[in-house]
Amino acid sequence: xxxxxxxxxxxxxxxxxxxxxxxxxxxxxxxxxxxxxxxxxxxxxxxxxxxxxxxxxxxxxxxxxxxxxxxxxxxxxxxxxxxxxxxxxxxxxxxxxxxxxxxxxxxxxxxxxxxxxxxxxxxxxxxxxxxxxxxxxxxxxxxxxxxxxxxxxxxxxxxxxxxxxxxxxxxxxxxxxxxxxxxxxxxxxxxxxxxxxxxxxxxxxxxxxxxxxxxxxxxxxxxxxxxxxxxxxxxxxxxxxxxxxxxxxxxxxxxxxxxxxxxxxxxxxxxxxxxxxxxxxxxxxxxxxxxxxxxxxxxxxxxxxxxxxxxxxxxxxxxxxxxxxxxxxxxxxxxxxxxxxxxxxxxxxxxxxxxxxxxxxxxxxxxxxxxxxxxxxx
Length: 378
Hints:
Elements: E1 5-18, E2 21-33, E3 40-42, H1 56-65, H2 73-80, H3 84-94, E4 105-112, E5 121-127, E6 133-138, H4 142-149, H5 154-157, E7 162-165, H6 169-178, E8 183-186, H7 188-208, H8 215-228, E9 239-242, E10 247-250, H9 251-259, H10 263-279, H11 286-298, H12 302-313, H13 315-320, E11 324-325, E12 328-329, H14 333-348, H15 355-377
Parallel strand pairs: 4-7, 7-8
Antiparallel strand pairs: 1-2, 2-3, 4-5, 5-6, 9-10, 11-12
Helix pairs in contact: 2-3, 4-6, 7-8, 7-10, 7-12, 8-9, 10-11, 11-12, 14-15
């Protein structure tokens, strides 16, 4: 302790204080003299970090603003008067490392990084239970993911019980290699997407066999969205006006009229609705699943037989996807909703050259969203 001083030094600090309007604070700092060794040292202040020209309040302001996916570093540069590079440096230095333990239920999905990126996709991993982001990896190839997951201790990887992903073969190989004790769950949305894609092909095939000027062609062309929708979510009593027929019908009748145009179309639609009904069950019904596979397999349409092979190949993974954690079925739904925020970040910034910066920003934004949602639920 000492009260001996050896002059003062005035430093100028950028500080947000008056209604978020930035000002300069001229801080007079005393240089003290040590009575033992006669060395001098500056007095510490709680206003700003040592040897910095900005305050702790400015750091907090930047960290709070960057929690929102619509905020860009250029916007913060205009707001604070610092250069974009300086704002990024502050963010990288003081942004907390939002790392979590490898979760019990891990969701994996790919994110499109844009045309300007060398690797077009990144791989995002998230905790299904807490919705917190675990990692964001550059690339989605087996080599990229092997390089990342091989750095995680085997003891941690063995604690993962379930992994949810889409039907990308690279993810499936990854799970078997690095999470040997985990059960792979194929996201039900991607199975249904394959079935809907097959129905789209049948609709297009039916349209090609119809006269473009016919009433039937206009009927199917303009109303095919009702065939692709989940019938359970439609109001079948809704009145639809058919311009080509010049009269109105209920939606249930409209669907029947379209299905009467082609027998293959009718079969594809019925199988699609049967699978959606099976998918809504509380638990995996093996008898119903095998019956569906058999009906797909017996079809004369090549595209329907392809669906049967897909279902057979992924039967175990589809069964695992019916597992419920805290009452919620395991799926990639939570991680798909977070992909929108990542796309917002990339779109507003016109892409990122520094992937390390993108990783920090993505985890900072998404974990903020998840923590707020968890607080509201509690």
